[in-house]
Amino acid sequence: MRGNQLSGSLPLHLCYLKRIQLLDLSRNKFSEGIPSCLNKFKVLSEESINRTETEGRIHWYNTTYYENYSVYIGGSYALHVRWMWKGVERSFTCPELILQSIDLSCNNLTGEIPKEITYMLGLVSLNLSRNNLSGKIPSEIGNLTSLDSLDLSRNHFSGKIPPTLSNIDRLAMLDLSNNHLSGRIPWGRQLQTFDASSFEGNVDLCGKPLEESCPGDEAVRKSKGEEVDDEDDKSVLYGTLYMSLGLGFFTGFWGLLGSLLLWQPWRIAYLRFLNRLIDYILLMIALNIVKCQRWLKDE
């Protein structure tokens, strides 16, 4: 029912559509808030599509004709829809087996996002962009683990981005641009993989993937820089120490060895010293052996 001139508030009778999977009321003139009873959409509250039940509602046969004439006359529908998917209109065949989506974009809706929407565990796509919605993004948004596309752009949402949003591993398209969000973009598995355009237009928002740094980032960088400087100082100190040890060893070793090799008097004196030292050691060993032999004889 998109692209009409429908106005007024969204009727509460929508909540009786328990088996609806695709709700598109975009590009109308609806105002006021989003009904909180949307969680009564039974199919959207289930984590997966019951293929057998869904096909049973689409494919049918005439039981009355079969009972009267014993002849089976069957029929089936092959559904084809054109659907706005991730900002692009695409054609889907058998969407009832793959899509579970709500699109209320391009209206004049006001108020906050009802927390009841976060109970729709089977929701694959949610588009509330280009409205006048305000308040905070519900922290329970991370419960929608089946979400593949989330567009909340061009509203008046404020506050911080819920950290639970980074828990949605399947999220492939995210647009939170042109709101009044503030604080640091939560760090996690998902949010840093999106382009900066997904967050631009929020003046008080900072952190990757935006170029705006958050307060305190410079202090962190500075402390990291000081640690790097300390490491550099230590490396210079160790390098100087090793160089001094090397020069000392080189000077001492070659100073002694060079003197013995080049100066004959020093070489002769050194050899005589070694001979005397060896003779003294051998003499002491011999005396100790003699003493041991005498002690054994006395025993």
Question: Topology of this protein?
Answer:
Elements: E1 7-9, E2 22-24, E3 29-32, H1 51-58, E4 60-61, H2 63-69, E5 74-75, E6 80-85, E7 88-93, E8 101-103, E9 108-111, E10 125-127, E11 132-136, E12 149-151, E13 156-159, E14 173-175, E15 180-184, E16 204-206, H3 217-262, H4 264-298
Parallel strand pairs: 1-3, 2-8, 3-9, 8-10, 9-11, 10-12, 11-13, 12-14, 13-15, 15-16
Antiparallel strand pairs: 4-5, 6-7
Helix pairs in contact: 3-4
Keywords:
299 residues, alpha/beta, Leucine-rich repeat, LRR (right-handed beta-alpha superhelix), 2 domains, seven-stranded parallel sheet, five-stranded parallel sheet, 4 helices
How would you characterize this protein structure?
- With 299 residues, this protein is α/β, with parallel strands linked by helices.
- Helices cover 32% and strands 20% of the residues.
- The strands form four sheets. Strands 1-3-9-11-13-15-16 form a seven-stranded parallel beta sheet, with no helix packed on it.
- The longest helix has 46 residues, at 217-262.
- The termini are far apart.
- The model has no long low-confidence stretch (mean pLDDT 78).
Query: Helicity range of the residues?
Result: 25-40%
Q: Under the CATH scheme, which architecture of the largest domain would be assigned? A: Alpha-Beta Horseshoe
What's the pLDDT, averaged over the residues?
78
Give, in order, the helices and strands. Answer: EEEHEHEEEEEEEEEEEEHH
Q: What about the largest sheet?
A: 7 strands, parallel
- For the largest beta sheet, what order do the strands appear in spatially? 1-3-9-11-13-15-16
CATH class of the largest domain: Alpha Beta
**Separation, N- and C-terminal Cα atoms:** 122 Å
Low-confidence stretches: none
CATH level-3 fold name of the largest domain = Leucine-rich repeat, LRR (right-handed beta-alpha superhelix)
Number of domains: 2
* Residue share in β-strands: 15-25%
Within CATH, the superfamily of the largest domain carries the name Ribonuclease Inhibitor
